[in-house]
Specification:
Bound molecules: pyridoxal-5'-phosphate
CATH superfamily of the largest domain: Type I PLP-dependent aspartate aminotransferase-like (Major domain)
CATH architecture of the largest domain: 3-Layer(aba) Sandwich
Helix content: 40-55%
Radius of gyration: 20 Å
Distance between the termini: 31 Å
Strand order of the largest sheet: 2-10-9-8-5-3-4
Number of domains: 2
Order of helices and strands: EHHEHEHEHEEEHEHEEHHHHEEHEEEH
Largest sheet: 7 strands, mixed
CATH topology of the largest domain: Aspartate Aminotransferase, domain 2
Length: about 350
């Protein structure tokens, strides 16, 4: 297996990739329905929720759209301190919602205090927060944010983008009181891109029933009707559902706590490597991601040259994202990777830095 140390898409275990080549089944067959139901039930364990998990034939951005189309008639508060949060805000605006922004410097988390202030000034139907900002390698304190939302504005629905963290970091949907948590396949779930998952609470479903113009493809009420029959309104990504089913079984066999600890250890190793080489981490201490590390490119490393060097060794890292391109670079440590893979990468990076002093 080659090693992609980028924050998605990531390496897919060959056994999981092979699942996609199994014979197709009609999606309205008992055999497929059984697989679909099992995948949905096992997904609940990864989201740590008793609520339903939708499986969509789309990437995660589809559920960005579903959140604002289904859960917001008019007013939504968008917490923005990174590129993907900015995108979610644009999704809300382009769907005609009044998207107010609570912004923070990209090097700072969204704080519960600021959320409390914003909610004290205006009533919002929903708040959108990105848990793991893949652009900055910063984790927002979602648990604490959810606490103040519940205390300050109990009816406001809490929507969380866990695209690059679910499966690699512990997000306790029910214990934290979240209403919608969405993720993509090609990140810490280590699946090929093409499907996404979202867990949705009962009260969010009740709100959706009242919202007009939910659209068709991402209408959660329609999706729920079909899900209750272990099916989907339109054709599911059958091969990817096979792969998801198998991968969820593997993840549960590894053990969720073991999986989170593996990610934490990889993050620690990577972050210690960077600081011990005189590099600075983009995100502040206490808010650093377990799945991706964003490093200030103070040394002016030419990322394309570094990647050419790494690719001779079957490896690749990621440049900074969007406005952080070349100013930062990113090392992904999610999915199937382990400590020995990280050691191999960091040793190769040391070789490159020594040769290019
Ligand atoms: C935090 C975050 N949100 C949303 C997205 C968009 O997900 P997708 O490309 O699966 O639509 C990404 C993609 O990298 C992401 O990292």
């Amino acid at each position: 297996m080659g090693h992609l140390f980028i924050p998605g898409p990531v390496d897919v275990d060959p056994e999981i990739a092979a699942e996609q080549t199994r014979a197709m089944l009609p999606h309205r067959s008992a055999q497929f329905e059984e697989i679909f139901r099992r995948a949905g039930e096992n997904a609940q364990k990864i989201f740590l929720t008793k609520y339903r998990v939708f499986i969509s034939a789309s990437s995660g951005t589809g559920f960005h759209e579903a959140a604002v189309r289904n859960l917001v008639e008019k007013d939504v508060l968008c917490c923005v301190n990174g590129a993907f949060a900015e995108r979610w805000k644009q999704v809300a605006e382009s769907n005609g919602k009044q998207a107010d922004v609570l912004s923070a410097d990209w090097k700072e988390p969204i704080t519960p205090e600021r959320v409390k202030d914003a909610l004290s000034q205006k009533k919002y139907e929903a708040i959108l927060v990105v848990h793991n900002e893949t652009s900055t390698g910063l984790v927002n304190p979602v648990k604490q944010i959810a606490e103040v939302v519940r205390a300050t504005s109990p009816d406001t629905l809490i929507c969380v983008d866990a695209v690059s963290s679910l499966g690699g970091d512990k997000i306790e949907m029910d214990a934290w009181g979240l209403d919608m948590v969405l993720t993509s396949a090609q990140k810490a779930l280590a699946l090929p891109p093409g499907i996404s998952l979202a867990a949705v609470s009962d009260r969010a479903m009740a709100k959706a029933e009242t919202v007009a113009n939910r659209g068709w493809y991402f209408d959660l009420v329609r999706m729920e009707k079909h899900r209750l029959k272990d099916s989907t309104p339109a054709t599911p990504a059958i091969g990817l559902v096979y792969a998801l089913d198998k991968q969820l079984e593997r993840m549960l066999a590894e053990g969720l706590e073991a999986r989170f600890a593996r990610h934490a250890a990889m993050a620690e190793l990577t972050q210690n490597w960077a600081t011990s080489r005189g590099l600075e981490l983009y995100a502040p201490e206490g808010y650093r991601s377990q799945t991706v590390t964003t490093i200030d490119n103070k040394l002016g490393i030419e990322v394309s040259k570094l990647n050419a060097f790494l690719s001779e060794r079957g490896m690749r890292i990621a440049n900074g994202y969007g406005q952080l391109k070349n100013i930062t670079f990113r090392i992904g440590h999610m999915g199937e990777l382990g400590l020995s893979d990280m050691e191999e990468l960091l040793a190769a990076m040391d070789d490159y830095l020594t040769q290019n002093k």
